[in-house]
Design goal:
alpha/beta; 9 strands; about 220 residues; 5-stranded mixed beta sheet
């Protein structure tokens, strides 16, 4: 099983790459009643996302963030049958107002579940980081295609051309990913240190039980393993 769990070591320093890194110690009981909102503004408690099935839940920084947009671009390419075969849910959570969900999904082509936590209740109670920490030895995200300058220009342009001009979330808030359920069991968690520190999608899905490997380098290819 070493081949499956080794992606957990994708992180900060070269010294850590050969070692297994433990998941962040989190308690879902602390956030189960936090309210999240769908694209229509309808609220549900967070625990509804993972009570009955295993769920891969990805928290993004803000919907204007170019790296989050490009990460969700690739999430939209995950085949539905891969999730169905593994019996897992794929969920994105942002921290903007709910009316930004629909434009973000239209922009990225994302068609799975998505919610927002506008008060950042879950982000704060789980201890997700604010501000960014970069290291020279950190691995770049395989899902972010834009450089920092061009990426920021794209974010600014999207902000300027948006019908509702706001930052679509706290600009300093970092995201993360957890695999949870059924019940309150946490199988894996990763808190981003910066905008490029996303958990690679293929590794994350494999940890959740998906038996397919996706290649996002150009056009996604499915390799049965």
């Amino acid at each position: 099983m070493a081949e499956v769990v080794s992606p957990i070591t994708r992180q900060v320093t070269k010294e850590n790459r050969g070692n297994r890194i433990s998941s962040v110690d989190i308690r879902l009981e602390d956030v189960e009643d936090c309210l999240i909102y769908d694209r229509h503004g309808v609220s549900i408690p967070f625990k509804k996302l993972y009570q009955d099935r295993k769920s891969v839940i990805i928290f993004v920084r803000n919907f204007l963030c170019y790296s989050c947009k490009e990460y969700v671009d690739d999430l939209s390419k995950v085949p539905r049958e891969a999730l169905e075969d593994a019996d897992i849910r794929l969920i994105v959570i942002g921290q903007s107002a709910h009316h930004h969900i629909e434009p973000f999904c239209s922009l990225t082509g994302y068609h799975y579940e998505i919610y927002v936590d506008p008060e950042r209740c879950i982000y704060q109670k789980l201890g997700m980081k604010r501000e960014e920490k970069f290291t020279d030895s950190a691995n770049p995200s395989p899902h972010v295609k834009s450089g920092v300058f061009m990426g920021q220009m794209k974010s600014i342009w999207r902000a300027m051309t948006s019908p509702a001009f706001d930052f679509q979330g706290d600009l300093h808030q970092q995201g993360g990913a957890i695999i949870a359920g059924p019940g309150s069991q946490v199988h894996f968690s990763h808190f981003d240190m910066n905008r490029l520190d996303h958990m690679p999608i293929t590794w994350l899905l494999q940890l959740a039980g998906v038996q397919q490997t996706l290649n996002f380098s150009d056009k996604p290819k499915i390799i049965h393993v």
